[in-house]
Every structure is written in C-alpha cells, then in structure tokens.
User: What shape does this take?
Amino acid sequence: MKPFSISPNPNSLYLTPSLKTVIAKVRYTIEERQGLTCILGDVGMGKSSLLRLLYAEYQSNELISTCFIPTPSFTSEFAFLKGVCNEFKIPPKRSLYDQEGALQDFLLTEYQQNKNVVVFIDEAQRLNGKMLEQVRAMLNFETNQDKLIQIVLAGQLELRDRLKDPSKKAIRSRIFAPSLLAPLSYDDAKAMFEFRCKLVDIPIPFTEAALKTIYDSTGGIPRELLKLAALSYELGKRAEIQAIDQDIIEMVKEEVSSI
Assistant: This one.
C-alpha cells in the first residue's frame, strides 16, 4: 500500500471530526429510516471514500440489504430503476409501473423480515431531473412510520445546484440532514499524513515547513494534498532524501501546475 494513494480506499480514510459528524448523520438517516440524505462536496473532497466506508459497514450487517452504484450512467429513469432493482436481484419488467411494483413488493418483504434496504449512489451529479424524480418516487414506498428504502447520494456541487432549482422542491424537501464537505484545516491535514504513514509503518517523511507548503499549495483539498505529497515522496525516495523539505515541494508543485 502506498502511503499517499488517492484511490478511494475506505481503510485509508482519515476520519476528521467533521467526517465523523457526516457519518453520524448518515447512520441516523439509515437506522431511523428517514429516507434520503446527501453528501455533497467539490472534486477531491473524499466523498467516494466516505461512501465506500459506509457501504462496507452496512454490507456486513445481515439485517440490512445494500447496493452500491459507483457511477449512475443510465440512459433513462426506467433504466435507472432497473439498475437499482438488478442490484437486489429483482427481475426486469417491461414497464416503469411494473418495475416500481416489483421493487415495492421486494421492500415490503424485506420490511416484514425486519430488514432495512439501503441504496448508495456515488457520482450522483450524473442523475438528471427525471432520475431525481424517480428517487423521489422510490421514497414514496413507506409505512405510516417508516420509509421502506433509504438512499444516500454522494455528488459534486453540481448536484447541490440542481437540487436548488425550484423545479426540484419536492425532492429537496425529502432530504434529511445533508452534509457539505469542507477543505481540511492544517491540523487535520497533518493528522491525515501521520495516519497514512502509520498505516504503512513509516515515519512522516516531510519537515514541518514542507507540510505547510503542501497545505498552502492545495487549499486543504484532500486529493490535492495527497497528490502533491505522493509525487514529492517518490522523488525524495529516488534521491534517497530522508527528510523532504519545502524546496522539493516547491519543485514538484511547479511540475504539477504545468499540467
């Protein structure tokens, strides 16, 4: 495992106090059957890692049926609904109405067996207006007390802008406890690097000045922090440098910014 990999591996996700709050809100939404919640953030903020961590947690729970859709590249709302149903091994139907009926039957059966059903959708900014309306329609499957399906959307700020449109008032009103990811503070960024290095059992290879340069150069965006750290670390290893200082960071930063 590389210490500064940008792959969305939940095992390497450093949980800041802010991310722990997001996790708590999602857990509450799911476990109290509140229906729909969203994790929103700019590119590189760690949405995918967070969603995969939550998915892994609930996937291992025998009282919860889960599905994970990493990229909702569907051609229509019917295709989207069939895609969700397919993840739960619900046979495809010939019409949207029949497919909704099949999903409802599945949800009722799960509910009667005291099981919760959770759908995790990453890259949710790819859902168009009709697909978002289908999400709203799925949330109509409920008892007097509980939603029969819980949906967690993770998407870029484009999704937030779309949900703010007056035409999306119906689904926006269904969102429970949404979360907006913010850049890391310097202390959190430093703690993230220490956490990553501990995972692979190496000392932190950057001087304090180098860490500050990495942070100032990236604005605290996790993916950018890791990219700059990864390139600097590899260069330092090749040059057999034990303590990477800000001069190396500045040199690597110029290379990155030229792309």
User: Anything to note?
Assistant: The chain has a mean pLDDT of 95. The first strand starts at residue 36 and ends at 40. The chain has two domains: 17-180, 186-257. Residues 17-180 form a domain with the Rossmann fold fold (CATH 3.40.50.300).
